[in-house]
Amino acid sequence: MSELRFPDGFLWGAATASYQIEGAVHEDGRGRSIWDTFAHTPGRTARGDTGDVACDHYHRYREDVALMRELGLGAYRFSVAWPRIQPDGKGPANPAGLDFYQRLVDELLAGGITPCVTLYHWDLPQALEDAGGWRARETAERFAEYATLVHAALADRVPMWITLNEPYCSAFVGYAEGRHAPGAREGHGALAAAHHLLVGHGLALRALREQRRGDERLGLTLNLNHVRPATSDPADVAAAGRAELLYNRVFTDPVLAARWPDGERELWSSITDFSFRRDGDLDLIGQPLDFLGLNNYFPSYAKHAPTADEDPAHRAATDIDMLENPPAELPRTAMGWPVEPDGLGRLLRWLRDEYPGLPPIHITENGSAYPDTPGVDDTARVAYLDSHLRAVRAAIEDGVDVRGYFCWTLMDNFEWAYGYTKRFGLVYVDYPTQRRIPKASFRWYRELIARC
Length: 452
Ligand code: FCB
What we know:
binds beta-D-fucopyranose, TIM Barrel, three-stranded mixed sheet, single chain, alpha/beta
């Protein structure tokens, strides 16, 4: 196979998220987040795992930045834990909380690594959830205040900012399916949450632009899937339309085209009248982005499947009479996710074709979980990364403006409801000793970065 090559200036990164790696949940005045509550609720995570210690990155960040230097990373995407900055979700910034991120940014810059900050990767202060969480518009306002505090402290040294990570998961997995914190199962609540997350993004974007320091770039990270019907049966074709609405267009239409998506009223009028929307919201949400962050792991194959779920609200917001039915011949990762690199290529072309004026794209997450053991080469992960990067390169050659790629993830970590049972890292973490052991994929990625 030909050697993988990328355009000059292509940004090579790796990504993590605060609750998945930091630990130190009681230190330096950090407040409680919805993920602390959720993970400590019996039955919510595999084996009852929590992020209390995680990778202990809060104490070991220097060692972790040293690993990033060894890898040759151009950029590192991490998230700020809102409850470290505002323990109760409002009021002045907690200096000790900010200080951790100051030290991390200093360490990265000293190593020649560009910091990329995600302001919200799911750890909402519990106090805000108690006041309604993302169902409530006030949370969007609180988010913009929090964002300005972090930006004011770090923008002189951080050139890349992401408001939200995957609002789809926050809204629908958190408030409708209940597999993520806060574990709610409400159709209306999930749709209100999706809207208020986007309002929060818009308010934060406007506020950050107003206090811009230099030429820092501001973006939003969406998880999107290329959607196809599982068969040519008209019922499956219709299911694919609903899937595309739910996974993609609820977010991409307002953000990238300043319009509400077609079909939403037909699908959801029985659970909401959309009265959470206000005049002017679309202008706020549809403000131009400096870049779009794209997370993608697998494509979607939608099949019509009248659901057996008895809760009409939950059913209407999530299952929408549809299930995923990827071709049986596709290999699967340890998550059960189908591996089809061309799905990412199709998604990139879909975005380009659907949204004229699309901003430059950074792939802010892509990667795979396998049942790794230390010392055994993770060849499946290398193959996954190689094939997905080839799909990205082909899309670039086709004219899609992709500027960077952040591998998910630097090191094994707390994989949400799966706890520590799923490993996505380039580095193996031996949790009892906190030893970091680079995998074969780490060496492969290092060579690729050095070559490109
Ligand atoms: C994404 C999340 C990230 C990680 C990967 C596997 O949905 O943003 O935190 O869990 O999936």
